[in-house]
User: Which sequence fits this backbone?
């Protein structure tokens, strides 16, 4: 069964500190993985996807198939990074629903 | 502008009074879905649709209905709302389950 686990409900860091939001997944094939972000009172939006290997707003995420992880990282947190972050997994075929983790709320303290 | 539009944004209703939340997308996406978002529980999928006239249950379908008569619209129907359906609801669409999902602005529903 497909499953996405985000072990931290809340992560608080100081401005300028490194950030790592953890995501582990369970899937038997080759997954497509995403990070979505939801700023206060806004809709969810795509932050990045592993296949594009790009850095958005200073965030990066590397797919580690051995550890079945897709952790989101940023070297220096900024106050505007405070938001809810969701890791999501799509199946190889794309014929099944996107599976979301429960989300991690990131709070960056000035 | 490419977008997913939900209406209404806010709704307060009474137990048992049928309601419909509309969702429309203008991107010609085949895949649409409904989620509810609750504190501590994250996003949970209610129903999804792979194409017109094709719908399937998600993780929490009880108490909800959907229809997909046209590609662009995917309304969520609560035939007899109850207080435990008080939540923030999001509609989303994408080309397929593998592509970026575009979300609506959300509908905050309160059932009293």
Assistant:
């Amino acid at each position: 069964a497909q499953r996405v686990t985000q072990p931290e409900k809340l992560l608080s860091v100081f401005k300028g500190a490194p950030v790592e939001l953890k995501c582990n997944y369970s899937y038997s094939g080759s997954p497509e993985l995403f990070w979505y972000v939801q700023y206060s009172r806004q809709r969810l939006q795509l932050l990045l996807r592993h296949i594009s290997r790009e850095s958005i707003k200073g965030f990066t995420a590397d797919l580690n198939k051995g550890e079945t992880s897709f952790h989101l990282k940023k070297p220096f947190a900024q106050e505007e990074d405070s938001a809810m972050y969701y890791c999501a997994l799509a199946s190889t075929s794309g014929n099944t629903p996107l599976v979301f983790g429960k989300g991690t709320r990131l709070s960056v303290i000035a | 502008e490419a977008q997913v539009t939900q209406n209404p944004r806010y709704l307060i209703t009474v137990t048992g009074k049928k309601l419909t939340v509309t969702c429309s997308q203008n991107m010609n996406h085949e895949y649409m879905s409904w989620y509810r978002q609750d504190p501590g529980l994250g996003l949970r999928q209610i129903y999804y649709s792979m194409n017109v006239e094709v719908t399937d249950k998600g993780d929490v379908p009880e108490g909800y209905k959907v229809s997909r008569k046209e590609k662009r619209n995917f309304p969520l129907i609560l035939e007899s709302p109850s207080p435990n359906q008080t939540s923030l609801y999001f509609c989303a669409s994408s080309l397929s389950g593998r592509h970026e999902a575009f979300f609506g602005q959300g509908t905050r529903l309160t059932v009293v």
